[in-house]
Amino acid sequence: MTRIRLRPDLALVLVCVALYVGSAAQVRSPGGRTALAMAVAAVAAPPIAVANAIGGALEDVRTGRRNLRSTLAEFARLREENGDLRRANQLLGAEVAALREGSQLLAAYPSLATHAVLARVVARDLPRTNTLRLDRGSADGIAVDSPVLGAKGLVGRVDQVLAHSSRVQLLTHPAAAAAAAIAGVRPEGLLLGGDPPRVSGLPPYTKVPLDAPVVSTGSEGIYPAGLLFGTTMEAKTDGIFTVVPVRLAARATDVTVVLVLAPGTRSAP
To answer: 1, 189, 219, 247: which has the highest count of C-beta atoms within 10 A?
Structure first.
């Protein structure tokens, strides 16, 4: 068996250190703590301080995450509220524009407004059916063949009615037709639907001025006399008739509010 032998001088040093430590352990501070306890505390203080600092930092990170999550949730809520307010503002703007256009219509045709209904365009189907959908129907006094008038001129006639909505057949519809007169041209013609509509039935080689007003005559029994359809474009002779394309005054893409006249209204002011 191998024995560990210490050199006499090293053994003496170790014995002295042990006696010093033992003596220090018995020495007490005024607070009652031993020197050894104070030494251990001094040695342990830096690691404890570091551990406390790390713990505080971790708690700050957790708190920060909670605050960030709360902030993001509040931001999302405010963004949604802002979207709602923007949509409400757009609707209010549309309402104001509709009221303004309706007021202009009533002021432009005071003699017709007594027996007319203001209606808003809620849908358009121009390429396929050449129609508009209104938000008023039979419950509001609208009937089939009611003339429909925009701020700038005639739009068409009602061809379908429900209780609370109705459909307008535009003047661009292929089946549309109305008696029409051109300013400065004596014979009356027939406005036929199309894009653009055209006045036909005039004698061949009839001289027709450009940009002359084309108005309703009421001969077909639907549109009141004296309302504007539009203005003339360049005329041409087609067979036994002179055909005159018409630039409509009221564009279906721009109309938002219309005046629906009572069927059988005879004339405009």
So the answer is: 189
